[in-house]
Amino acid sequence: MPDHDFQSKQLKALSNTKRLQIMEWIIDPLNHFEAQLDGHLVTDGVCIGRIVDKVKLSQPTVTSHMKVLEEAKLVTSKKIKNWVFYKPDPEAIKHLFSTLEKRLL
Predict the structure, then answer these.
(1) What is the Cα 40 distance to its own chain's centre?
(2) All domains of the chain, ordered by start, with CATH?
(3) Using CA atoms, how far apart are residues 84 and 81, in angstroms rounded to an integer?
(4) What's residue 1's pLDDT?
(5) pTM above 0.85, yes or no
(6) DSSP codes joined into one string, 30-61
(7) Rounded to whole angstroms, how far apart are CA atoms 70 and 76?
(8) What φ, ψ does residue 28 adopt, rounded to 5°?
């Protein structure tokens, strides 16, 4: 997939208000979520259950949103016990915005 097409996919992933809100929360998890029993908020990511509770959507809907963000390579996932934990990929986010800045400014 050419870089322009992939950047378009990333921007589309962020264009949804719920996904954008989730990204804001998981980029700064210590200020948006309480400590978790399993997995550290920063090093392991935020448990899908915590995201579901905060965004007030069903788990399948949140899982769908997270899949879009993961396919756009904006987040990574990690399974711990029976749960999936998500954290942002800061390098991918920086690359997206630095490339956009070069293209548009």
Answers:
(1) 16
(2) 3-95 (1.10.10.10)
(3) 8
(4) 45
(5) yes
(6) GGTS---SSS-TTTT-EEHHHHHHHHT--HHH
(7) 6
(8) -130, 65
